[in-house]
Amino acid sequence: MSITTVTQQLTVNNQLITPTDSLQYRAIGRLWGKYIPSSEQINQGKLITADGVIINAIVRKRASKRLRYPIDLSQDYLWTVYPRTPIEDSGIGFYMRLISVRTPSEYTDLMKTEFQLLADNFSVQGLVVYQDYEKGIVEVKIHRSPWMINDTPKGFKLRLFGFIPPKSVKCFWNFQVRRVGTDLVIQSGECIKYMADGAIKN
Hints:
By secondary structure, the chain is mainly beta. It has helices at residues 61-67, 109-118, and strands at 2-3, 11-12, 15-16, 26-37, 44-49, 54-59, 77-84, 87-88, 91-92, 95-102, 121-132, 137-144, 154-161, 171-180, 183-194. The chain folds into 2 domains: 26-118, CATH 2.40.50.140; 121-194, CATH 2.40.50. The model is unreliable at 4-15 (pLDDT under 50).
């Protein structure tokens, strides 16, 4: 079972952003924008996208090392990000974890155009745990791998917008998603497997 619309592939550095396994949990994408760190911490701040949307951002360790090198934060860059849509007091939040940044020594106009075309696309793969048929809301459970050997695996829910077939809850889906403002909108999707107990089984 699949749904499709016209969407571009997620590619960067000649590499596809695709799952390494058909049942791999994932939520990753690219954003083109300018990072503005807070006055207190360089690894927390705002990402201003090309269309003027201001997104709360947390810089992961790998990307934060790049920020400490001579990098011009007045410029726009192509960022690899993990999206998050947490439940907050004011409703559903929206922020990004910045995990890496592409900073070539010189940006040509052609490179900028190419990078901007790659931006705003996401690959999301996980278990559908909720869908609202009228509002077009789909919540996907993502199981996150532990950062340390002894850590307990944790999961989070990612809210997407779009319509998928009824009775998709407890099904493992692969989605291609595009950021529109502060929404993650489904462009295409494929049902990979039904999980009766909500767990991955081979």
